[in-house]
Amino acid sequence: MKYLFLLPVFLCILACEQKPKTLFTTLPASQTGVHFQNSITENDSFNLVDYYYVYNGGGVAVGDLNNDNLPDLYFTGNQVGDRMYWNTTKPGSDSPTFEDVTDKAGIQKGGWSTGVTMADVNADGLLDIYVCKSGNYAGSRRKNQLYINKGNFQFEESAERYGLDDTSYTNQATFFDYDKDGDLDVFLLTSTNLVRNPNQVTPVIADGSGLANDKLFRNDSKASGPRFTDVTKAAGILHDGFGLGLTVSDFNQDGWEDIYVANDFLANDFLYVNNRNGTFSEVSKSYFKHHSQFSMGCDAADINNDGLPDLVVADMLPADNEQRKKMAGAANYQQFESITRQGYHPQFMRNMLQVNGGKAADGRIVFSEIGQFAGVSSTDWSWSPLLADLDNDGWRDLVITNGYLRDITDLDFVSFNDSFAQGNRTPEEINAYLRQGAPKMPSIKKANRFFRNRRDLTFDDVTATWFGSETSLSNGSAYADLDRDGDLDLIVNNINQDAYILQNATANSHYLQLKLQGPKQNRFGLGADVTLYNNGLTQTHHQAVTRGYQSSVDYIIHFGLGAAKTVDSLRIVWPDGKLQTLKKPGIDRLVSLDYRQATQTARQPEIRPVTLLTDVTQASGIRLTHQEESYLDYNQEPLLPHKLSQQGPKLAAGDVNGDGLEDLFVGGSFRHYGKLLIQTSAGRFIEKPYTDESQPKDEEDVGALLFDADGDGDKDLYIVSGSNEYYDGSEYYQDRLYLNDGKGKFTAATDRLPAIRHSGSCVLAVDVDKDGDLDLFRGGRLKALQYPLPGESYVLINDGGRFRNATDELAPNLRNVGMVTDAVWADIDRDSWPDLVVVGEMMPITVFKNNRGRLVPLSLEALKGSEGFWNCIRSGDFDHDGDLDFVIGNLGLNSRYRVSPSQPMRIYAGDYDNNGRLDAIATYYLDGIEYPIASRDELGRQLPLIKKQFTNYALYAKAKVTDLLTPERQKISTVLQACWQQSVFLENTGGSFRLQPLPALAQWAPIQSLLVEDINQDGHLDVLAVGNAYDAESVAGQYDAMTGLVLKGDGKGGFQPLLFPQSGFLADGDCKFIVGVNSPAQRLIVVSVNNGPLKVFQPRKN
After folding, report:
1. E strand or H helix at 846, and its extent?
2. Last residue of one domain, picked from the residues 472, 491, 517
3. Rg of the chain's alpha carbons, rounded to an integer?
4. Is 850 inside any structural domain?
5. What gap in Å lies between CA 706 and CA 136, rounded to an integer?
């Protein structure tokens, strides 16, 4: 008993151990005075059936409503009233405090409030409040509200008087001066509750007639005050969507604000670019390669401090395997193609991080989506993404809110409902059943996610150390320095629990905060651009407060400075183009910037940098566009990770007509012949056939080579046949050889090649046996329709112009080496005999030493565990040590997979159901456990027995590979694996090799082809890389982030990556091959694109 007094001490110690200190502290309502809870209860009017946005929550707006330099709060409620809170924090207080002034302010009750934003609508220097309304109500109860600030927390609802009492199903608004007449206009983000199946594939509506067409109101200010006019159609806002996210920024850097709209369901996101004449053009397809499928909130800001606005959009991809499997149905490839044919952009279910690559020569802005590379793609049912410097290090971090009240995506729930509906039920019975069933579903409560910017376009998940593990149903969020202590705090609107006031405890860092005092009709400086310069680091901020989801952030601009104790200068470009510069503004303080001190005009003529290459496609005369017939490999093999019928076009360069000028062969596809491009003395190309095209073409050209097959001194043509459209053994996998008459006329030499009946990939010529003629390596891609079994690879020996298969004699280990994609002949040991290095899908980098004409595999320590998704390989002496090194293209890191030697991706292949067909089950590791990749429906489509083994989705969601593949199944399995996904530099160190990843920018997408050239003529070899892969299965989504990359060599084995603004090399799209072609003036670089036109570049002369 005498030790009982120590019990409280022990309990305190235990509590401290259980909840370690985090960067952000959740302040209790009893301490802050913020007693707001967005409580939602399903009823006869508000439920999943009658209003499918019933669980979407509310927003929060932050701003100084009484000009005391403290940010106040406004929360929107759905079934509860909105609340307003006055910031009463005293100087020196440990935490912010608030007083509820809702009733005093005259805030009206009733209606379903959604988004909220603060803006000085009537230009009197006081922030007003605009509240959006929606819900399962008649239009009269969906009128948006405008609260005009009269001072001292007195507000007057004036939406009708200002022309802003819109009755659409409105989710958010943003105020901005789109026409640069000095006053603030407003864009309204809308949805609808009148469409029963918003995912039904229907034609795109782009004429302004859609039920969920967003709206634009122009401010026509008069002496009596602002009056807003609906100019939606006249301004070009014509696309129908289900808008959930909205932000404005100057995406194309022309000084005029553009609008980004994030849309839920089928509609793709919109980017309305300001035409500078009162109208907008929707350009999302030319700026972005793909979007989120179920876009929620969004934010635009510069994440890499290059001065360009980047973009983040939230979606609902779960982070853990179990939740993914519970909501993932079968991939519907036919529907995916149908959607794109209807005019929709490709969409994939995950968060998107779109990095602004800059302006192309045609004026478009080129974005690369790298959310998976950055580590921010899967954060569960996400709502509000905000980009803000949360740790004051000068780089924007990312916070994303999470949660959903009912797990309506649970496929057991969905399938049970489908079964019920199919039981001869009336619509009334089905709806009644759903109304009763939905409230019984569990909640998806997750912790909000925090990501620290690593300053290299990747982020660390720091949720545990910045926030902790507390779960919630969080929706709208905003940031502000609530207590004015120099760091950004967070405010979050939660469903069925108190709103979060998250206090930031960042220490030992500096900051600078700015308050803009704008022109007369835009007092808070919306649309201004601020740039901070400090010791080589540049930070930018575009003044727009509508960000995230249904929310608006504080008007005070916040720059973190890290350890810096000074700021060199500030540059402010006001919305009308006036420029203001402030030298040495100080640190750790709030600085006011007054528009009246701005003088000169900021805009200067655009100066484009001198680049290494120039696009000369038009001047080259090449107009050839590759055509690919649509073929769905997945109809035959549902578990394929990617299509195998979309590999061309491949290119081959050589002088085919003996005029001393290099010409070009471009491979064809099924039903489309390849073409010769004959070069003229003027450096232009003329298209001509290489063979009789009167007969239908059944082969798919996947490799090509111009070489002297018969020793007569001219270039003959070898074409590799491949793809996955015929069964293994088909005559249409026979390669073709065409002999040249010396003048460019080719004749099929059908008797010069041995019988080949396996799908191929590549062909390479070398005198392997040193008998004076050119022999061939022909790579085998796969046994068609039996993925992942390899096709046969061959060594074809040239006997007087005829080729015989000498593989078993000279290289028996080569025949079934793997699913070969590429190879290179290279004398790796400098013994004057050409060795062979082979790469392929889910196979190691494999070296065959040429032992006087025999190819013997080498066992190299550095290449053990080098299995990868290898696509291409090229050689060169990159470090000037006299031997040949290699660069090898791989899948890259912008993928949902993360592989390593200890946690590889595997494919288990076997006939598990004894139906005579191979079943290929792909697996990956997540949190150290190996799981099948395919969903239950996808796997069940190939293996119906799986649905009997796992009778519901919940059981399958917990299934590990060992549960799926019993010991008996594993015994009959062929197992392949991939341990590497980075593209690499393989350094030859004279007898051994060293494998190291290429720079991070080379990991944004699969590299499909490489060219080794000294592009800048500095004596060091450089590398040009092209890639992407639009043939990936539709759940993972196409790989498209690569825009062409120059890796500038330093002569020591190091590379400096240059994107197109610096290099001039813009090769986006589904690029397949790159080749150099000599021309009279200078060497040309040609890039092929699947289902697209060729691109031609010319290096700059020094």
Report:
1. strand 846-851
2. 517
3. 32
4. no
5. 68
Residue 318, preceding bond cis, omega within 30 degrees?
no
The secondary structure of residue 1040, as a DSSP letter, is -
Give the residue numbers spanning the domain of 946: 905-976
* CATH number for the domain that contains residue 239: 2.130.10.10
Query: What whole-number distance in Å separates Cα of residue 649 and Cα of residue 669?
Result: 8
CB atoms within 10 A of CB 336: 19
Sign of CA dihedral 826, 830, 835, 838: negative
Q: Indicate the DSSP class of residue 1002.
A: G
Report pLDDT for 1040: 98
- The CA distance from 1090 to 164, in Å, is 49
Nearest of 83, 84, 31, 57 to residue 502 by alpha carbon: 31
Nearest to 379 by CA among 312, 330, 334, 302: 312
Cβ atoms of 791 and 644 within 8 Å: the answer is: no
Are 322 and 343 contacting, i.e. CB atoms less than 8 angstroms apart?
Answer: no
Q: In what order do the strands lie in the sheet with 298-301?
A: 298-301, 310-313, 352-359, 365-369
* Bridge partner residues of 189 (DSSP): 172
Structure confidence by residue, pLDDT tens digits, 845-886: 999 999 999 999 999 999 999 999 999 999 999 999 999 999
Q: Which amino acid, residue 777? A: F
Max distance between CA atoms of the chain, in angstroms, equals 108
β-pairing verdict for 974-978 and 905-910:
antiparallel
Q: Are 873 and 885 in contact (CB under 8 A)?
A: no
Helix axes 411-421, 427-437, angle to 10 degrees: 150
Q: Which string of b and e fits 779-810 if b means at least 16 CB within 10 Å?
A: bbbbbbbbbbbbbbbbbbbbeebbbebbbeeb
C-alpha distance from residue 384 to each of 474, 584, 833, 958 (Å): 9, 35, 61, 29
Tokens 């060293």 correspond to what residue? 994
8 Å CB contact between 1057 and 1046: yes
What does the DSSP 8-state code read for residue 894?
S
Coil/strand/helix, residue 14: helix
For 549, the 3-state DSSP assignment is coil
Positions in the chain short of pLDDT 70: 1-20, 196, 415-424, 430, 433-434, 437, 602-607
Dihedral (Cα; 588, 590, 594, 599), 10-degree rounding: 10
CA-based nearest residue to 25, from 471, 467, 497, 474: 467
Give the number of domains in the chain: 2
Provide the whole-model pTM: 0.95
> CA geometry: angle at 269 spanning 268 and 273, to 5°?
130
| Nearest residue to 315 (alpha-carbon basis) of 269, 259, 367 | 269
Backbone dihedral region for residue 620 (phi beyond 0: left; psi -120 to 50: alpha; all else: beta): alpha
How many CB atoms neighbour CB 206 within 10 A? Answer: 14
**What is the per-residue pLDDT across 135-165, written as a single tens digit (0 to 9) for each?**
998 888 999 999 999 999 999 999 999 999 9
- The tokens describing 814, both together, are 């080569």
Residue 1099 preceded by cis peptide, ω within 30: no
Tokens of 491: 């405010």
Residue 69 within any structural domain of the chain: yes
CA gap 528, 541 in Å, rounded: 8
Which residue type sits at 462?
Answer: V
pLDDT at position 584 is: 96
Q: Are 997 and 859 in contact (CB under 8 A)?
A: no
Residue 759 lies inside a defined structural domain of this protein: no
In a domain, 776, yes or no: no
Provide the CB-side half-sphere exposure for 802 (13 A, CA): 6
What's the half-sphere exposure (Cβ side, CA atoms, 13 Å) at 518?
29
Final residue before a domain boundary, out of 931, 950, 976: 976
Q: Which of 63, 965, 887 is nearest to 543 (CA)?
A: 63
Question: Counting beta carbons within 10 angstroms of the beta carbon of residue 930, is it exposed (0 to 12), middle (13 to 18) or buried (19 or more)?
Answer: middle
The span from the CA of 671 to the CA of 825, in Å, is 32
What secondary structure letter does DSSP report for 140? G
The one-letter amino acid code at 115 reads: G
